Amino acid sequence: MTRLRELLNLLFKPHPWHGLPAGDRVPELLNAFIEIVPTDTVKYEVDKDSGYLKLDRPQKYSNLCPTLYGFIPQTYCGKRTGDYCAEQTGYQNIVGDGDPLDVCVLAEKPILHGDILLKVIPIGGLRMIDGNQADDKIIAVLKDDALYGHWREISACPQALLDRLRHYFLTYKEMPIQPRPRIEITHVYSRAGAITVIEAALLDYKEKFGDPQKRYEELEALLRSMSSI
Q: Of 25, 53, 59, 83, which residue has the fewest beta carbons closer than 10 angstroms?
């Protein structure tokens, strides 16, 4: 088992959503795969099938994300995530958006490109609803960052930065001469709220894709069965 894991790690780059762990001490210390940085003028996102970073769409207006932006590996916004959002808002028929859980990362030093992995600490989040889909945005700080690394609660975040994040997510899908999409941010929630959302998304992932910890066992069993044919 250990040798199989070592060989796979040497031979293949893991899929950033499925092949990387959620973190070292989930949910207090997480991995964040970064897709977009604040200087990007187009929107990138991971291609779910291949794991490569792809161009999702050019931004039609001068919308720049105020923070590093990506997702937490091995999370999925499914039934539990949607149910929790509905419980907190009182809205009905809310479902998860079917994507990994999004994360905004605060870091002092400029990071000029995506497709990188960071160690981050969650401090809160934005409860965003896109149509009838829960689309939470976890807010985290880069571990050991000189400026932000000691923050542990969303209350440390200046209101101006939260306002920028809210404005970005409420407007980044707007397109010229098209009806404005129904997007709202109902709450800015604390670290405790963020941890609840993260735990729901971790469970949603296991239900959707299986337990990541058992994949090497399944692969080894499959290889053994093939060798006996």
A: 25
Q: Where are the beta strands (DSSP E) in the chain?
A: 30-36, 42-46, 53-58, 68-71, 95-96, 102-106, 116-130, 133-134, 137-142, 183-189
Contact 42, 122 (CB under 8 A): no
What lies within 8 Å, CB to CB, of 158 at 6+ separation is none
- What is the tens place of the pLDDT at every residue in 191-216? 999 999 999 999 999 999 999 989 88
User: Hey, what are 16's tokens?
Assistant: 């950033």
- Say how far apart CA 27 and CA 194 lie, in whole Å: 9
Domain parsing of the chain, residue ranges? 15-213
CB atoms within 10 A of CB 86: 17
Q: In percent, how much of the chain has pLDDT > 90?
A: 77
- Write the DSSP string, 199-226: HHHHHHHHHHH--GGGHHHHHHHHHHHH
Q: How far apart, in Å, do the first and last CA atoms of the chain sit?
A: 21
How far, in Å, CA of 204 to CA of 77, rounded?
6
CATH class of 15-213: alpha beta
